[in-house]
Design brief:
The protein is mainly alpha-helical. It has one domain. Helix content is about 70%, strand content about 0%. It contains four helices and no strands. It is globular. Belongs to the complex I LYR family. LYRM9 subfamily. InterPro entries: Complex1_LYR_dom, Complex1_LYR_LYRM9. This is Complex 1 LYR protein domain-containing protein. It comes from Vitis vinifera (Grape).
């Protein structure tokens, strides 16, 4: 649970780097996704690792879409891919 909260916080910090008019959409999108997947079995490490990897790769996709430097996601990578 702690790792998920750290990932969520890192995603919200990345949302702040996006253009101002897109921030509400991506903040809401991130929250909805974290809420939707909160019922994932915490005892299944494969499911959790898959979700964290998708969190990171999707965040990179959004950053690239708006030409934000991918280095901004280094903290998220550290959380999700460790």
């Amino acid at each position: 649970m702690k790792k998920a909260l750290k990932a969520y916080g890192a995603v919200l910090r990345l949302v702040r780097r996006l253009p101002k008019d897109t921030r509400p959409y991506y903040a809401k999108y991130a929250r909805e996704n974290f809420v939707n997947y909160r019922e994932v079995d915490a005892a299944d490490p494969n499911a959790l690792n898959d979700l964290f990897n998708r969190t990171y790769t999707h965040s990179l996709w959004v950053l690239n879409k708006y030409s934000v430097d991918q280095a901004a996601a280094d903290k998220l990578k550290e959380i999700c891919c460790s």
